[in-house]
Amino acid sequence: RVLTLQHKIQAVQTIAKCFRRWHTPHAGPEPEPEPSVQSHDGPDQIRATQRNFVMAAVRGDSQTLHRLLQLDVVDANAAATFDKDLQSALIGSTADMDLNIPSSSTALSAAVANGHQDCVAFLLERGVDVNAADANGDTALIMAARLGCHDAMRLLLFPPFGNGPDVAQCNDEGSTAFHAACCRGDPVCVQLLLDSGCDFTRIDRKGRSGRAIAVENGHFEIANTLREWSANNLKDSSGRTARERAVERRGDAWGKLSRAEQLLAVRREEASMAAELAEAESAFFEAAAAHRSG
User: Fold this and answer.
1) Rounded CA separation 282/271 (Å)
2) Tell me, what DSSP letter sits at residue 36?
3) What is residue 241's DSSP assignment?
4) What is the C-alpha to C-alpha distance for residues 93 and 103, in angstroms, rounded to an integer?
5) What are phi and psi of 81, to 5 degrees?
6) Which of 4, 193, 199, 212 is the most exposed place for a label (fewest CB within 10 A)?
7) What is the CA radius of gyration of the chain?
8) Residue 276 in contact with residue 268, Cβ under 8 Å?
9) Where would I find the H helices in 39-83?
10) Count of beta carbons in the 10 Å neighbourhood of residue 290
11) CA distance 124 to 132
12) Per-residue model confidence as pLDDT tens digits over 92-132
């Protein structure tokens, strides 16, 4: 085979390279080129990983949550977004068609919305921010109150897992978890938030209190509960509740009535004694008149 000039040059260079490698004393092997490493830190990859993390919470997959947290490739407090096409694709690819895949959600909110209490407890144990909000400003507590998730609310609000959520935190509409519970009309959610010490007098951006929202939605049982709670717990500047003030006023009224009854009894006794005296005097005069005439 007749080699071209270029092929001959390449062959000579290869032979020279081999000769230098074999005859250079103590020469180590030529370093191999480092393999190119594909970067996984691009924005699309980060968003996809974050969605996988939230989807694990949607499905209640604690193992995947644990693995991704160990790899330190996700932000446990960040929200992931799902457009309508992606939501439809994810729901269509799952065996359980009842999964609640919100348009925006943190992993904690996703676990709450789908009733996975073990995932909620796991994430709380891992120290996730219980006040982290999604794109709408909804926290896990607001989500639980809106959906009536009693067990999740207990985990979020009270020990051993609850780590002090801000019950006064508002979403983008100016509503707190208490407003959401009153709008739903769930007495258990309302009572849990009252027991946690929430401000039940706070108003939303429309100027409505929780009681006004309950009345507006026809939840009159909730409205009555809040009225009783307010009477027993809302204190004035002197530290007295409305019920305590009513008892004091009632006590004053009873005292006045008792004193009036006592005075009336005295007057009646005096009148009775006066009548007896008049009768005795009349009898005496009659007797005296009869004596004189006799």
Assistant:
1) 16
2) P
3) B
4) 17
5) -110, 145
6) 4
7) 42
8) no
9) 43-59, 62-71
10) 9
11) 12
12) 666 555 678 778 889 999 999 999 999 999 999 988 999 99
Q: How far apart are the first and last CA of the chain?
A: 186
pTM: 0.66
Look-up of token digits 């446990």: 76
Give phi and psi for 235, each to the nearest 5. Answer: -110, 150
Q: Residue 21 and residue 14: Cα distance in Å, rounded? A: 11
- Choose among 113, 118, 43, 107: nearest CA to 75: 107
Residues 246 and 242: their CA atoms lie apart, in Å, by: 6
Beta bridge partners of 104: 81
Structure tokens at 90: 């994810």
Q: Nearest 5°: phi and psi at 7?
A: -65, -40
Find where tokens 């500047």 sit. 237
Alpha helices in 84-160 (DSSP H): 84-92, 107-113, 117-125, 140-147, 150-157
114: its two tokens: 């789908």
- Specify whether the CB–CB gap between 101 and 87 falls below 8 A: yes
* Residue (of 168, 175, 167, 165) closest to 213 by Cα position: 175
Token representation of residue 215: 């009345």
According to DSSP, residue 183 is labeled H
Q: How far is CA 156 from CA 98, 160, 180, 281, in A?
A: 24, 9, 16, 87
Residue 241: phi, psi to the nearest 5?
A: -85, 170
Q: What are phi and psi of 27, to 5 degrees?
A: -85, 125
Say which residues have a Cβ less than 8 Å from residue 154's Cβ, sequence separation at least 6. 162, 192
Distance, in Å, from the CA atom of 114 to the CA atom of 137, rounded to the nearest integer, reads 19
Distance in angstroms (rounded) separating the CA atoms of residues 188 and 149: 10
